[in-house]
């Protein structure tokens, strides 16, 4: 396999880029999707979250009320660190297990990790260790804010607050081996992803597991 990390700030269009890479033939391991699986009712992560914040984060159907969780953790740095401590180690372990399952494949394997830059700077989340390269989906902050307002129903204040909670644009770009510019139209993004795919085809196979840990070892 050729293992690469993919990241981008909220509103950057990272999910659109990852879907386009998948359509071209990449295998996708999505950290956000894994988080949702781990937060299903009955899962240890779900139980740990309810133990921490109580029934206020459980909706009428017994599932996690993600809006209630967001209201708690994005308004208090201590609570944000608490949820990271609960969720991130389990996400890292699950991602390692899934990489191990496809490690013999000749395909490009994309790790879609929204908070990769934050993890690289000392966080507890998946940080793309073992990858051959890091791809960053980039756009100006004002463009990201506009998208969040227009397409996801955020107020401008809330959108900027979410952006500010993440790593800066400059911090993400400093990690990049390849930058997908998503400041333009969907057609522009398609061309950027095609350019990235050509670049990915030049990468050598990625050794797995990485030297410093085995695939299922807890961080």
What key phrases describe this protein's structure?
alpha/beta; 5-stranded parallel β-sheet; 10 helices; 5 strands; 12% strand; globular
Give structural notes:
- This protein has 219 residues and is an alpha/beta fold.
- The chain contains 10 helices and 5 strands.
- It has helices at residues 14-24, 31-38, 44-53, 66-73, 77-102, 116-120, 141-152, 156-165, 169-175, 186-200; strands at 2-8, 27-30, 108-112, 133-138, 178-181.
- A 5-stranded parallel beta sheet has the order 2-3-1-4-5, sandwiched between helices.
- Helix 1 crosses helix 10 (186-200), helix 2 crosses helix 5 and helix 7 (141-152) crosses helix 8 (156-165).
- The longest helix has 26 residues, at 77-102.
- The two termini are 23 Å apart.
- The model is unreliable at 214-219 (pLDDT under 50).
Question: What's a concise summary of this model?
Answer:
This protein has 219 residues and is an alpha/beta fold. The protein is built from ten helices and five strands, in the order E-H-E-H-H-H-H-E-H-E-H-H-H-E-H.
């Amino acid at each position: 396999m050729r293992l690469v990390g993919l990241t981008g700030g909220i509103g950057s269009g990272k999910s659109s880029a990852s879907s386009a890479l998948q359509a071209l033939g990449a295998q996708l391991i999505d950290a956000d999707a894994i988080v949702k699986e781990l937060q299903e009712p009955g899962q240890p992560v779900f139980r740990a979250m309810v133990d921490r914040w109580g029934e206020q984060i459980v909706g009428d159907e017994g599932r996690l009320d993600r809006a209630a969780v967001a209201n708690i953790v994005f308004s208090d740095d201590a609570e944000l660190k608490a949820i990271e401590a609960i969720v991130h180690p389990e996400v890292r372990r699950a991602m390692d297990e899934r990489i191990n399952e496809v490690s013999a494949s000749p395909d490009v394997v994309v790790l879609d990790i929204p908070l990769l830059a934050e993890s690289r700077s000392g966080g507890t989340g998946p940080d793309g260790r073992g990858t051959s390269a890091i791809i960053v989906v980039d756009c100006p902050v004002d463009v990201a804010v506009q998208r969040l307002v227009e397409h996801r129903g955020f107020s401008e204040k809330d959108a900027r607050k979410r952006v500010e909670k993440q790593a800066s644009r400059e911090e993400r770009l400093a990690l990049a081996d390849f930058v997908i510019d998503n400041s333009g139209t969907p057609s522009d993004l398609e061309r950027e992803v095609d350019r990235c795919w050509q670049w990915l085809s030049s990468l050598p196979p990625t050794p797995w597991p990485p030297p410093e840990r085995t695939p299922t070892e807890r961080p």
